[in-house]
Design goal:
Length: 213
Amino acid sequence: MNQVSKLKKLEKLSYFDKNTLLQVICLRDNSLYANIKRWLRTGRLIQLKRGLYVTDIFYSSMADKTSYAEFVANKLREPSYLSLEYVLQKYGMLTEAVYGYTSVTLKTKKAYKNRLGVFSYNSISPKFFTGYEVREIGQFSVYEATKAKALFDYLYLKFFRTTNITKEMFESFRLNLDSFTRQDVRELKGYCDKAGIEKYRKLVKIIGGQIDK
């Protein structure tokens, strides 16, 4: 059985690493590396990040490539969940288009670019690694922030080094709060209270005033 035939064994996997390839292909490191380079060049393999791959056959078979990319976003840097601009855009809260998948993680800040898109990760404190839901989409489980948590993550990072937050500073982001409800404000308040810093508590009053207009 040639090496390409062996690669077919991986066509049903949503992703795999070098160790999985070693088990299936049964080559020494140098030979495996040469095969990986050739498969990437010919398009048989897609590199999601260094050492993590998916076959072109699997990716091409995905009818919903966006949901698959969301799933991959969770896997490229673990633990993580989709949040920030990507989720805010889903709810129509950003006035400018967002290109790429944004997430928060307990690890350091990082970005990856592959055939699926651009994936960026911002680091957040463990006490704020919450407020996400698990969406079941076909065979994939996707971890994604709620609307309120995505907004908190976004503003928390934007104002992290700011001493004070004013209404004008908040309005400079030109956020569309039409879909933001009083229940969302209450959820946001819980995260701001957890921060234990007055400037974030002030955000709740500013945002509450905006949606009451």
